[in-house]
Amino acid sequence: MITNFARRRGEFHVMPTRKSEYGTALSESRTMEDDDWKIRLGFVIHDCARLRRIVIDQYFAPLNVTRSQAWVLAHLSPDDGLPQSALAEQMGLGKVALGGLVDRVEANGMVERRPDPKDRRVKRVYLTDEGRKVVTEMRKRTLEASVGILDEVSMKDLRTTVTTMNKIKHNLRKMVE
């Protein structure tokens, strides 16, 4: 069955059609239905990401940290003391863009740069005590937001979704390399 997309209440729904754009009758095709689901996935991912950003921004507002700054802290949390160039690569940012971002986070007292003991040209970025407190609070607030975000989603569905999204992410990375 060939379908069109209709947007209602912020969601995309697959709507069946009986004729092509030229007015000719169309036969039902499993392949075309599969194609529609593949296209629909992109819309759903985009909408979920956009809405999640809005919710997380609301939960993080009392911390006085922007989403970009939170992203720096989140990347440093498991791997504190990364060289600034490695942090830029992990985050998918250019060195200059990350440099400005780290400047702002450093000005807020959440990170500090120190020279690498083996190569003084390399600057490593470390969380401060304040930065670690903010990371702990970010984690707490993210988990609080997740209660509402994942309402009525089973752990089985969540695991399946994360596994599938990681496969898609892997495929996308291969395509951009």
UniProtKB/TrEMBL annotation:
Pfam families: MarR_2. Signal peptide: none annotated. Transmembrane segments: none annotated. Coiled coil: none annotated. One of its GO terms (molecular function) is DNA-binding transcription factor activity. The keyword Nucleus does not apply. Keywords: DNA-binding, Transcription, Transcription regulation. The keyword Transcription regulation applies. SMART domains: HTH_MARR. Residues 38-170 form the HTH marR-type domain. This is MarR family transcriptional regulator. It comes from Mangrovimicrobium sediminis. The lineage of its organism: Bacteria, Pseudomonadati, Pseudomonadota, Gammaproteobacteria, Cellvibrionales.
